[in-house]
Write a structure and sequence with these properties.
This protein has helices at residues 2-15, 17-34, 37-62, 71-87, 92-114, 120-138, 159-181, 184-194, 196-201, 206-232, 237-240, 244-256, 263-277, 282-299, 303-312, and strands at residues 149-150, 234-235. The chain has 322 residues and is mostly helical. It has a domain at 36-242.
């Protein structure tokens, strides 16, 4: 009887999936009108980290590109925004988009050498590139060395404006991943994830598929990073290019469920709420998050969402075409 009830509920959810999604989006659109500034800020952070996590999950969970250097695109996007708005008084929107384009071009340039590396070497290679950028920006007089920039153009915007910007990039990242995975490219990516050699023998252009994912990840990550530093008002190289960004992405994806669209959605809520709770315990916050991740890996190796999907046999945002 219990299994029958679960089946009925799953079928109802599947049948009314798009109505549920539309309703949730409608509620999210109204949050700035009735919620406190603190609540709006929490959702703003959730959306920004969601975009970062979805892009990392697309790379690691589907393309097999486990990167520890995604912060390079966050830093490039943030610094492009700061330089263009502070030194050249460029409009905010164009500065954010230019940062995304610069990150995309940089990703294209480094893809040739870095894609020659495999598995752990690729992971270390991306991290080294990010570290090199951190050192370069810290010693570059044009961007004021390690002193950083105050992004005064941010004062033109209210928290509500930034909330909607973050909402667009956050939900947009979910839509982008969903569309990609239900396309021909997505089929190739899932084949690569399962068996790269077999996928290549079946005609999947492995290098091209991975490159497209890497470029999309660079662009969206850069935009999300720009919006984050617009919200923070200040950018500094040691933070912008720091490994903490990737640690957050990995934590969110692992606890939520790597290789699932819904995983980062669950993981980001847990991460942001924990981060707020542990805000006054900066010395042990990373230790606590690490312990939580270790325990969860032993209890539910596929993360919250991955484990639920395995037990229930149901995916809310399924990449598979019927």
């Amino acid at each position: 009887m219990g299994k029958e009830c679960v089946t009925i509920v799953i079928n109802d959810i599947r049948n009314y999936k798009w109505f549920i999604i539309t309703g949730l989006i409608a509620v999210l659109l109204t949050i700035p009108f009735w919620a406190s500034n603190y609540t709006v800020s929490i959702f703003l952070l959730i959306f920004m980290y969601l975009a970062l996590a979805q892009m990392w999950n697309l790379l690691a969970g589907y393309a097999g590109l486990v990167s520890l250097g995604q912060q390079m695109f966050i830093g490039l996007g943030g610094y492009t925004l700061a330089v263009l708005t502070e030194l050249y008084r460029a409009p905010l929107w164009s500065s954010i988009l230019i940062g995304g384009v610069i990150s995309l071009i940089f990703a294209l340039i480094i893809s040739a050498p870095i894609f020659r590396m495999r598995e752990a070497y690729f992971t270390i290679g991306t991290w080294l590139v990010a570290e090199a950028l951190k050192i370069f920006f810290s010693n570059w007089g044009y961007v004021r060395y390690g002193q950083g920039f105050f992004i005064t153009a941010a004062y033109q915007l209210t928290t509500t404006h930034m909330y909607y910007m973050a909402m667009v990039i956050g939900l947009g990242s979910v839509a982008v991943v969903y569309i990609i995975l239900r396309s021909r490219l997505g089929l190739g990516l899932m084949a690569i994830r399962d068996n790269e050699t077999a996928a290549e023998s079946m005609g999947v252009e492995v290098f091209k598929a991975k490159l497209i994912c890497f470029l999309i990840g660079a662009f969206v990550t850069s935009i999300a990073g720009s919006i984050f530093y617009l919200y923070q008002v200040f950018i500094q190289p040691y933070a912008a290019f720091g490994i903490d960004w990737t640690v957050a992405m990995v934590f969110i994806v692992i606890i939520g469920g790597i290789g699932t669209i819904e995983g980062p959605l669950a993981g980001v809520v847990i991460y942001v709420l924990l981060r707020q709770y542990l805000y006054n315990y900066a010395g042990i916050s990373m230790l606590v998050l690490g312990l939580i991740a270790i325990v969860l890996i032993h209890v539910a190796p596929k993360g919250f969402i991955g484990t639920l999907q395995e037990k229930l046999g149901f995916e809310f945002l399924s990449p598979r075409r019927r």
